[in-house]
Amino acid sequence: MALIDQESLSSNGFDFMIRSPDPTQSTEILELMRQLDSETEYMLREAGELKMTPEQEKRFIQKMLDDEKSLFIVAEAETRIMASLAFHGSHLRRYQHQGEFAMGVLQAYWGHGVGAALVRTMLDWTVRSGIIRVTLKVVSDNYRAIKLYRRFGFVEEGRLIKDRYYADRKEFADSIIMARIKF
């Protein structure tokens, strides 16, 4: 099981905690995801595209918690889940040393160290789990996120040209593939 003990943190006077979610919080986590989708274009989905039910989300959370190669964590402040990170590892022998993650932080909590704390917690877990290669995909103009990932040793490995399409603007955007390898 990939469970993280609750960790209380403080950053510039802002108190929050990071922990593994409880599957019974599926509705709250879905609300977080829907708000993230509507706040920023950097998420995978557009607003309204998430069709998962609370019961489906509950099963997803439980599956993540039961999988020793995957990790799902949330950040919470003032009894509100404000961010999440999902890491998916592989069970194939040739790829069990690696995995990919994605995360989102509500805009009201940007600049409080929440994203950094989520990444640090995930990277600590990957080291303990024997995972040496961690990858992610980030929109090329998401400079804040790119700066954060570089701070943790991620480097650009490639670019996916016109990987993302913004229908409202009829524009494409590139995605950057980044990785961190630690033995």
Q: Using the coordinates shown, work out and report the CATH topology.
A: Aminopeptidase
CATH architecture: 3-Layer(aba) Sandwich
Broad structural category:
alpha+beta
Head-to-tail CA distance between termini: 22 Å
CATH class: Alpha Beta
What characteristic shape results from the CA principal axes? globular
Number of domains: 1
Q: Uncertain segments of ≥5 residues (pLDDT<50)?
A: none
Structure notes:
Helices cover 28% and strands 36% of the residues. With 183 residues, it is α+β, with helices and mostly antiparallel strands. The protein has a single domain, classed as Aminopeptidase (3-Layer(aba) Sandwich). It has an eight-stranded mixed sheet, with helices on both faces. Helix 1 (26-39) crosses helix 2.
Task: Give a brief rundown of this model.
The chain has helices at 26-39, 54-66, 114-128, 143-151, and strands at 7-11, 14-19, 71-77, 80-89, 98-105, 133-139, 155-166, 171-181. Helix content is 28%, strand content 36%. With 183 residues, it is of the alpha+beta class.
Keywords:
single chain; 183 residues; alpha+beta; Aminopeptidase; 8-stranded mixed β-sheet; 4 helices; 8 strands; 28% helix; globular
Show the helix and strand layout.
Layout: E1 7-11, E2 14-19, H1 26-39, H2 54-66, E3 71-77, E4 80-89, E5 98-105, H3 114-128, E6 133-139, H4 143-151, E7 155-166, E8 171-181
Parallel strand pairs: 5-6
Antiparallel strand pairs: 1-2, 2-3, 3-4, 4-5, 6-8, 7-8
